Request: fold
Amino acid sequence: MPIRPISQESFAVGEIGPYLSARVTQPVYTRSAKTLENWIVLPQGPIERRRGFKRILELSGVSADAVRASKFSFNANEEYTLLFSPLQVQIVRNETLRATVVTPYSASDVFDLRLVQSGDNLIIVHPNYSPRQLVRNGSDTDWSLATLTFLNVAWNRFNLTSLCTPSATSGAITLTLDNAPGWRAGHASNVRVRINSGVAEITGFTNQASGGTALASAGTASNAYDSNNGTVTNAGTNGWVGYGFATAQTVRLVGVQSNSTQVSTIVFETANNASFTGAVNRGTIEASLVAGTLVWLDVTSPSADTHFRFRVTSGQALDVQEVRLSFGLVANATVITNLTNTTQSNNWQEWGWSPARGFPRSVTFYQNRLIFGGVRDAPATIFGSKTGDFFNFDNSATNADNAFAFTLNTDQVHIIRDIKSKRNLNIFTSDGELELSGSDTALTPTSVKVAPQSTYGISDIPVLEVDDQLHFVTRNFKEVRSFVYQLGSDKYVADNKTILAHHLFKDGKEPFGMAFLRSYKETQSNLLIVSREDGEICVLTTDSQREVVAWSRWTTDGLFRDVIAVNVNINNKLKQALFAVVQRTVNGVNKVFLEMLTEEDAWLDCWHAGTSGTPQTTWSGITSLANSNVMVVADGHVAGTYAVNGSGQFTLPNPASSVIAGREYKSTLGLQFLRVVKDGQALNRVMRLVKTSVTLQDTLSLKIGGQAVPFRGFGNQLLDDPLITYTGTKERKLLGVGKDLTVTLTVEEPLPCTINSVTTEVKIGN
Reply:
């Protein structure tokens, strides 16, 4: 039985999927692993145990699933981590919370935000909110958020089926549409319409509650629909307010003037009889009612019925000053610029974004223009500002430097989800990736060219820009692709970065967020960080010039959520650091932390550090992990596990000058099945393990096949001195017989390990 060595000198392909488990004669097999958990693949080929995440701050009162991490760069030396959570954004510089600013964004909104920066202003867009800007007001503790004011909003034609007729050319007028779908409640928010060379501003809608009567049978109201808003109708708690038409009508808009300010859930019903027998629920609406103000609401799924009613749910009372019903075809307006005539027109436009039509989904700067991409009712339209005048979107003229609105002419409706400025304007949609440019060089209102590039479509995760590549998660959440221009084909290609590691992203393990960490520590590793729904992180070591594309996975005692890479200043040295939002269970309670991947010699997560000029046994300041157990490294030695009391203190049996305390994690390297190759073919024979030799660098802990490797020798080193890292080769004899043999290497102590190569000797049977 001859002894054969099977060597692996590189891990530069990283963890690969099981579809490649039989490709034993291919280089991809001999440079990969079945499992790479809590390692970093170095571009040179070795793997290094990942360092720990340092606890920065606790995010109280929020869910980890509702925190979006972003970056604000005031300059290269002063960058901020922005943590958007429900109704606020927390602003962190280096390792300190600097400010908290109130926002309107709910938990369901934060992951649809798109951001672009200009100087000390950050423009924020969301399809349900008017664009806003976050401003750093002269210091890192003084910030404000305000709605953007536009010199002019773009014009766009949304309603392509209705003709519009103005009642007059000046003053107070009506704008009447000839058919459905009609006006929407959001139009009453002073939305402007351009028609017959003039402009009018919508102020409300015609009340068409006539030819019928208020219905006491619908609830407790009897005067809800009179014209006297001084008459308050108390519908009571969960009481109905109703009205009956003489003939069946289609009501599309309801105006409610409440006697109090409240956020209410309103349910609508219709029927064809006064007793509301067989009433049809037309849906519910979240309404922000303002005392003494007429608030218009869209009625969901309207149909022609004679009787109509609504009530406030959730046990709230409703005191009504006035209610109006509208069929949605007649809007009241005030003329801003006189019209030339009152002719019925099919060439009328309205503001390109508004509460009625939605707001921009994406934003960037391109060729000295501010570019918005897609609104709810025009998801495939690009809006560009006037050149050099970022808040002027008046596209009524076609001069070369004027603003423009351009709708993608594609074979299906593309929802623009992100836009990025590179060689030209890259547009990422639900159904494909496109490039938008001018017919010559400059993009103008009359010079627009769209060229489809690929047809994968992107998810709702923002596109991540990395040097000359744009990384995106496909709409099926199964692939990470890099969008890069190829000179030979004169187009962009979307290269699949997960084809070898196909198992990483699947149902239950979809990507959650992305970040890019450049030149981590002294390893010169460039890492694409992708957090997953299941709480793990997938890490891609990438070096396109050297064809390094290697995935590994990071786990923790908790759930990793969103991630972001930001420059930090540590000990007067500027470095890029990875921040992660992490959920951890502490004493049975879920807590949310902002943690930072350290470059320090710490191999614990959520770790806290302490030093003392005089050695001591009692250490404090770990309140975030109070009433739980922590692993402690004291003066460079693994001290063991200790309980933290309710005050955040723990006590060591022996005094120490420095401690690091936190949560443990395990690093696992699972090698591919051991195969002996002869003449280009794998020998499918029974083998017996003999021993495994591992070439190590700066290592203090390792198990080979479950057997611990000793690293402290007997020499001049004192037993209480810090351990000296080992560089060289360690080996262990192993047991095992079979055709499908593998070796697993682990590190379980909070100590370093770097593996350069692994050689396993086997005996081959006949």
Notes: The CA atoms of residues 250 and 356 lie 19 Å apart. The domain at 212-326 is CATH 2.60.120.260 (Jelly Rolls). The radius of gyration is 32 Å. The chain has one helix and 64 strands.
